Amino acid sequence: MQRLKWSERIGQSLNAIVLGLLAVAMFFPLYYVFVVSFTDPGEYLQKKIVLFPQHWSAEAYTYLLSTPAFARSLGNSAFLATVGTVCSLVISSSLAYALSQKRFYFRKLLMFLIVLTILFSPGIIPNYLLVRELGLINNILALILPALANGWTVLLMKNFFDSLPAEISEAASIDGCSAIRTWYTIVLPLSMPALAAFGLFFAVGYWNQFFAALLYLNDSAKWPIQVLLQNMLLNASNIDLVAPGQQVETPPTEMLKMAAIIVAIMPVLVVYPFIQKHFAKGAMVGSVKG
């Protein structure tokens, strides 16, 4: 192996320094939010800017999680992430499996319509009118039903089902299995890695629901965590963050905001390192055929 020239060494060193500085610049805001959220309220009021607290405290989290508004928003987001993910997987996988069956008569027409939804989006106003006509305004189902499936996910799932051996479905048909029974007893168990990958995409999307909730939900009791967090950051005084039965003094507003940010992003931060390989696999599912 030839030794690197001094100019190449300098270039690599500069690249490492620049990338290191960029990493620190991107990590520091998250670090600061985390530190402030765990700082003792008295110390925060004295210093205002805390880089490493002398006294750690979880008082902001204890107070925040005991407030009805914040607890409700967490429950709403958990409902969206669980129920929405399951429903989206059922609808998307069943539609994709039907499109993968060559004997399905309307296969080409549906494929054309699905590709059309990818190329052209109706926009905000038609979607709002549709949700209003369905009677879903101020209903949490308005965040689930319109987002049950999207064209890109259905096409990727369809390509994955195309990669499964056709002899499996034919053998099940000979044994007397209907198409629906073949789908949920044979095809879905064989597709668990792909379903896990797509389920992660759906779960993260439902957990981060913000704009649709802002459009369709008027009742603050039905807000997911992201909408409540946005309102807290703009004006925490407008949010009912009074914990019933609390005898302790309310922590500073900025500390409550920082704690709310950490709680909102923690599920994704905790889960993502363990499922990163599934995200990468989900991005490639059905895109390459051997």
TrEMBL record:
Pfam family, one: BPD_transp_1
Record-stated family: Belongs to the binding-protein-dependent transport system permease family.
Designated name of the protein: Carbohydrate ABC transporter permease
SUPFAM superfamilies listed in its UniProt record: MetI-like
Keywords: Cell membrane, Membrane, Transmembrane, Transmembrane helix, Transport
Transmembrane feature ranges: 12-34, 78-97, 109-130, 136-161, 182-207, 255-275
Organism: Paenibacillus illinoisensis
Membrane topology listed for this record: Multi-pass membrane protein
Coiled-coil region: none
CDD domains attached to this UniProt entry: TM_PBP2 (cd06261)
Location of this chain's protein in the cell: Cell membrane
Chain ranges of the ABC transmembrane type-1 domain: 74-274
PROSITE patterns named in the record: ABC_TM1 (PS50928)
